[in-house]
């Protein structure tokens, strides 16, 4: 035993001597490298160092976008400021005047289509669709399709969506493992599956939504588009066609998605031509039909053209709907005293909501507050400059630069939301008269909701203004927002009416950021307990 001790101590001494000499060598090497870097830097012109710093900051935007945008806003004092990404220069403006200037600039100068084209790289991700950067070159039927026809059809769509949500949610929930007698559900993947099915039903109709092979490529199409577009954008320009082309061939869910939609679009176009010749054709109510009907009469769209439009709408709706719903469910878990009053509202007004396609003011306000404080995107009103543009204060954009607004920072700012800007007040946007009635009746956990910290700022979820940029602003504000709001109320409403919910780890990180987006983590678990179970 004594020998062992001796042996250990001498080994320890030897290793200390060895470790300390290694440490000394390390320190010396560090000093030499520091001196080398320092003396080399002294010979590099300061403009080169500035350029290196700018490029490093541009690459760090990929992982720190929301923070860089917010810090820029805080430093800017309301003036325009620049944020760089590896592939773009963003010029952020935050004053209502400048945001209006973005909205009123001609589409030939500041283009939303141009920004979307750069983001999605449709040449490689949408079966070769090389869409126009200028709006309206081939008509803007999708605005009427979504803003008027899809919205007007909500009373027909919502009952089906409600039934499907209830049944599919229960089915997905059953699949999740039990831990100590309670199921733990990975909320993000669960909501993606639900949203893909429901959105397919609402946009494409029963027949396609029930086609399992078609639906099986509907989600990979979105994911592969995101991945391919990101890789292509980060490559040097010269390599983009080769790598983009290879990725487009290999990650080919977009082609399958396109091919499954072709027969449906061909049929609708044939029916359109027959109708024009005076024949009777079936009446249909889904986005494929409305896109065919609203395309320019003098130059009707081909089936392919209709599908490209559908692919863009599908891509633009699945991910944002899912993510917004996930954050609203997180917020219900984090602020459970809102559940009772919202549930009471749902139980008494859900049928009216389904009939009208709008309503449920408490849930409406809760969703708006959740999106205000946890916006999926920290950037809004994106426009790519197709020609040089100068704001009224002289700030200039070069061709290829983006004009945009820091929506996340604006929606959290005290300038717009008062001293309680950072606090979660789920009923911040409810009309005072509705809250008064609530005070008189059920107010959730005995807490007076109307007296919550903030000044009330009545507004509907779908209202657009320069301090609430979730939907963009002005002429091009999201035309799908009435459908999106109703859709989210169906999903969140059905869950609240049928389940109690709790985050498994309320303090754990719940998202990661990529560029200006906050993406929910796949591992966040929620315990849904069926009510009355
Ligand atoms: C929570 C869900 C959604 C959010 C937060 C959202 C947000 C936005 C934003 C910020 C814009 C850009 C507006 C601008 O720059 O001024 C936009 C445009 C658009 N959105 Fe949405 N959107 C949502 C859901 C949807 C859905 C479900 C659809 C379709 C069914 C849709 C279709 C569109 C289209 C087609 C545009 C382009 C408008 C144009 O070019 O004029 N969105 N959306």
From TrEMBL:
Coiled coil: none annotated. It holds the Pfam family p450. Gene3D superfamilies: Cytochrome P450. One of its GO terms (cellular component) is membrane. Heme binds at residue 478. Its cofactor is heme. The chain crosses the membrane at residues 20-44, 306-329. This is Cytochrome P450.
């Amino acid at each position: 035993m004594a020998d062992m001790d001796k042996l250990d101590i001498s080994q320890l001494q030897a290793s200390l001597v060895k470790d300390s000499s290694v440490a000394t060598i390390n320190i010396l090497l560090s000093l030499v490298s520091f001196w080398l870097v320092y003396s080399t830097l002294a010979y590099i012109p300061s403009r080169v160092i500035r350029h290196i710093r700018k490029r490093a900051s541009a690459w760090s935007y990929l992982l720190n976008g929301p923070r860089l945008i917010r810090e820029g806003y805080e430093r800017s004092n309301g003036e325009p400021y620049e944020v760089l990404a590896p592939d773009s220069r963003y010029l952020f403006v935050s004053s209502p005047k400048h945001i209006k200037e973005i909205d009123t600039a001609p589409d030939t100068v500041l283009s939303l289509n141009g920004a979307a084209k750069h983001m999605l790289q449709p040449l490689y991700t949408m079966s070769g669709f090389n869409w126009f950067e200028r709006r309206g070159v081939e008509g803007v039927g999708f605005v009427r399709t979504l803003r008027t026809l899809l919205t007007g059809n909500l009373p027909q769509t919502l009952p089906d969506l409600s039934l499907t949500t209830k049944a599919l949610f229960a089915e997905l929930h059953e699949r999740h493992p039990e831990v100590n007698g309670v199921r733990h559900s990975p909320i993000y993947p669960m909501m993606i599956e639900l949203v893909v099915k429901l959105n397919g039903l609402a946009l494409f109709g029963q027949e396609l939504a029930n086609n399992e092979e078609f639906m099986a490529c509907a989600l990979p199409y979105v994911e592969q588009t995101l991945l391919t577009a990101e890789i292509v954008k980060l490559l040097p320009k010269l390599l983009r066609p080769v790598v983009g082309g290879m990725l487009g061939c290999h990650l080919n869910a977009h082609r399958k998605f396109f091919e499954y939609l072709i027969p449906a679009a061909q049929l609708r176009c044939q029916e359109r031509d027959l109708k024009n010749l005076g024949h009777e054709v079936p009446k249909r109510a889904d986005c494929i039909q409305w896109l065919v009907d609203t395309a320019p009469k003098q130059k009707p769209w081909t089936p392919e053209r209709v599908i490209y439009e559908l692919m863009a709408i599908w891509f633009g709706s699945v991910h944002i709907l899912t993510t917004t719903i996930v954050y609203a469910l997180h917020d219900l878990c984090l602020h459970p005293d809102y559940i009772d009053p919202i549930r009471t509202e749902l139980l008494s007004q859900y049928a009216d909501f389904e009939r009208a396609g709008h309503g449920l003011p408490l849930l409406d306000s809760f969703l708006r507050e959740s999106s205000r404080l946890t916006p999926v995107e920290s950037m809004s009103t994106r426009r790519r400059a197709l020609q040089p543009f100068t704001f009224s204060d002289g700030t200039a954009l070069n061709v290829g630069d983006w004009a945009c607004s820091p929506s996340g920072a604006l929606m959290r700012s005290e300038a717009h939301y008062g001293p309680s800007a950072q606090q979660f007040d789920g009923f911040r946007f409810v009309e005072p008269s509705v809250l008064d009635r609530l005070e008189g009746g059920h107010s959730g956990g005995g807490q007076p909701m109307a007296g919550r910290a903030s000044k009330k700022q009545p507004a509907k979820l779908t209202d657009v203004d320069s301090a609430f940029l979730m939907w963009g602003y002005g002429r091009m504000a999201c035309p799908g927002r009435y459908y999106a709001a109703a859709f989210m109320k169906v999903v969140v409403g059905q869950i609240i009416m049928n389940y109690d919910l709790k985050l498994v780890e309320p303090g754990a990180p719940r998202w990661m950021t990529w560029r200006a987006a906050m993406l929910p983590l796949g591992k966040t678990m929620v315990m849904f307990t069926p009510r009355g179970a």
